[in-house]
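Entry type: protein chain
Record version: 2
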Amino acid sequence: MARGQRDPELERQWRERIARWQASGLTVREFCRQQGLLETSFYYWKRELRKRDAAASATLKSSPAKKSRPTFLPLTVLPAATLSVEVRCPSGHVVVLSACDAASLASLFVALGPQSREPQAREGQPC
């Protein structure tokens, strides 16, 4: 690779090394000794990558952003689906639960007692 050109693979390797060092909790000297790296190379790449990141960030900030109008899409709002349960007791009482969930229904059956758990189908009436 010609002098002055960046090697993306080399940059990726050093970014990974620096990330591993940060996660290791070791000093730079200990990390470099364990990895077989020169401390001078480590510090060079740490400084170089920081410069590259700062330059890339400055380029992004100075680039004029395209101004685009927000796009709004039409939405159709539907009513929330609700479950309504109607319980007719043998005594003639009718209990209606709107927006009933499983816990509420279970509480109702406990309150009604053991007979409420066995449905009794009657001709012409809901079960």
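Comment: The first strand starts at residue 85 and ends at 88.
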